[in-house]
TrEMBL record:
GO aspect biological process, one term: porphyrin-containing compound biosynthetic process
Similarity comment text for this entry: Belongs to the anaerobic coproporphyrinogen-III oxidase family. HemW subfamily.
Name of the protein this chain belongs to: Heme chaperone HemW
SUPFAM superfamilies membership: Radical SAM enzymes
GO molecular function: 4 iron, 4 sulfur cluster binding; coproporphyrinogen oxidase activity; metal ion binding
Organism: Saccharicrinis carchari
Purpose: Probably acts as a heme chaperone, transferring heme to an unknown acceptor. Binds one molecule of heme per monomer, possibly covalently. Binds 1 [4Fe-4S] cluster. The cluster is coordinated with 3 cysteines and an exchangeable S-adenosyl-L-methionine.
Zinc found in the keyword field: no
Entry-linked Pfam families: Radical_SAM
Record keywords, A-Z: 4Fe-4S, Chaperone, Cytoplasm, Heme, Iron, Iron-sulfur, Metal-binding, S-adenosyl-L-methionine
Amino acid sequence: MAGIYIHIPFCMQKCGYCDFYSLVGLSDKKEFVVALCDEIRIRKEELQREPIQTVYFGGGTPSVLHIKDFENIIASLKEVCDIAELLEFTIEVNPDDINLPFLDDLKRIGFNRLSIGIQSFNDRILSFMNRRHSSSEAFNAVEMSKKAGFENISIDLIYGIPDMTLAEWKKSIDKAISLKVQHISAYHLTFEPGTAFYKKLKQNIFREVEDKQSIEQYNVLIKAVTKAGFDDYEISNFCLPGYQSKHNASYWSGYSYVGLGPSAHSFAARTRRWNISDLKKYINNIKRGEVFYEQEILSDIDVYNEKIMLGLRTKNGAEIRDLHSMDKKMVQLFNEKMQKNIMLKNVFTQNGRLKVCKDKKILTDQIISDFFVV
């Protein structure tokens, strides 16, 4: 098994762009931890099928939990599966949640990788996104994490933000690099239905940035991180040698994983499963022994589209032989699309793999869409 993802659905305030399932406040925290530990025991058989390589606490905001909560959750995991030899044990944290005692406790209970949700080192932009922390708190969070002994630190940044200048974006990148972290994730802002930003977009309060700006910002990012020795191993992820996110890389490689907590997704063979995105229903259904998830069996078309999407997002690309093992009509369509996009200089082949050309990386999503079977 690739790993375990654990979703912590609490935030102290909601960011304007975020569409991940979360609730503001901690009113059901105690009941949630009990239900989560029960889910771990319920899914004992799944968790024992294969060796577990990674565990990832995401959210929401995992760092709003108390250390005792993590100890209880980890103890439940240890009851049903072996996590003594994890390659990677990650927790997402907000800069304003952490202090040295908290970080020391995280290390003590086994975490060896931090993913710090910084998003920007510009206070105006942080306020625009409704982030809780300041740029100075972001800087201090990284420095504290290093002082606590964490040697595998990732930070998140966002570009494509309305009214953000190229100079502001470059300054955030330069600050991130100067902190000597091992990993940077940089995502283009998207406007997802149900978010505050989407509502403001529809009300014409602000507009999406133009494609020209997005490309310019992405190119500045690539130039800066490459110069600093980072490998662009996935369209939005950059690491120093040896510091790929092992957990996320396993998703992109199509390995199985188990998702625990409300809204968490699981995958094995052709089965995709997702827990309900409702905390009270999640808690009550587990308590009553009722079904707390939905699932689907992937069709041949689903499998093909997923192989294309996951493969082309990475530097390694999609394995052509694997795609040629699909249904005859899909293979024919794939070959046609491949030749078309090679002619357009969007993709190229290398060692039996199909890859997106370096100067077309920013267009990866459009290229992937062209390959999709609908």
